[in-house]
Task: structure prediction
Amino acid sequence: MEPSIESLVERVQAARAARTPLCIRAGGTKDFYGGPLRGDALDPRGHEGIVDYEPSELVVTVRSGTPLAALQSALDARGQMLAFEPPHFGAGATVGGCVASGLAGPRRATAGALRDFVLGAHLLDGRGQVLKFGGTVMKNVAGYDVARLLAGSLGTLGVILQVSLKVLPKPAVEATLQLEADEAGALERMNAWGGQPLAISATCWQCGTKPGLLSVRLSGSQASVDSARRQIGGSELAAPLAERLWSGLREQTDPYFTDAPASPAPSTPGPLWRLSVPSTAPPLALAGAQLIEWGGALRWLRTAEPAVALRTRAQALGGHATRFRAGEGRDDVFTPLAAPLAAIHQRLKRQFDPDRVFNRGRLFPEPDAH
Result:
């Protein structure tokens, strides 16, 4: 066993024996996401490095403590990328934190979610055992797909030690177009484009000015981008400005995320909510500053509206609402699970972490004591 793993195993076994909770935390760039941090810090960054990278096979295997920026730099050198475009939210982001958070950026609607690219994983469970799931090829995902289960688990099932990820070539050409549109018009256009073979890799609508601005990123071959440009129209954004736009959305450094008001009164910004709904859902009709991504399927909302009102509206539209940046409230981040799903969640937690050592309450509220 590698020394970096052995030290983690010893910490977990000691915590289990003492019934002391552990908080799995590396760079801390996503501390804001999910429930409150509880327990003694367990830092997996000592377990780092790229284990295997086969550009011709479009697969990379990497230890969880590896800086996300280092992995992306290695891929970029070979003209490849993580297609789900994960956010960093800070220089300390690691591969393990990337997988545990399960978050994806502007390309998610066309490329797929993070979990779609997880081929295999090694996990340190609550008993101090190292478990291995999946492999390095797509055929290994048949049956019980535990490796993908780790995506978005926020460390509640164990310490992610290693992952194998599918990567993709970077597009040869990219261009960003912008058009004026109100919310209803933007949703109509994005859904119409979604039904056509257009080289669209990201969309965003924001009502910063009337009637609103719809941005569309095109990615692919020169011919496919030129064809989509002719069909969509609008004005083309200069490359540096386009990079700043999509980076600002991915990393949430865009002014919308940093200083958007929750209502006409700019002194009350309110929490940032993320509503996941069908792309064809009508406008939210809720108070607050809004930004729309993923062809209409992701609706960001800065609002002081109560959680029950937001979740009721999201459910009525066929989706759910997450308190993404919670502000003072950290106990109702995720929509409560229906009873059957809650039972499955609890059984999984007992299977992987029977003594509730890891990240108590990060996904759903739970008592501190046994």
